[in-house]
Please model this.
Amino acid sequence: MSEKKKLNPILKLVLDIGPLILFFAANARFGIFAATAGFMVAVLIALAVSYALTRHIEVMPIVTAIIVLIFGGLTLVLHDELFIKLKPTIIYLLFGGTLLGGLALGKPLLGMVFDQMFHLTDEGWRKLTWRWALFFFALAVLNEIVWRTQTTDFWVSFKLFGVVPLTFLFGALQMPLINKYSVERKE
Model:
């Protein structure tokens, strides 16, 4: 079986965060509805570019794109920004719940996502999976608090300038655990 092609990490970051940057910029210039439409298109373009370069797409971006299209579509069709604001909460709950479900079934799913990057013991994958699941649940609560108490413009800015740095910081804070439970891969 041949190994899957991987994207350059910088390009992967651009494809992951680019649609969100476009969402922020379009919201500032044209408002939430135009930003939502642009976000939907940008997510599809990011998926297409990823597929064109690697001939596969990971599960998380597909799930995210489906939810973006559903909730973005509802936002545009019903002309109600509530749906695009609920989208992150739904995604975070889905990711956190999926990770915990995998643990309950004895399959730390995070290991399947990051196995190419990190090689951990089973205990390491379990602990890391628990941490990421709880982090996703915390992001869901945080999204609910922010969109319910702040303006739409603040919420959009928070998505880019709050959630993205928090996620990078949380990921970086996992390095001691990753180092502690890292194992050499046997080829």
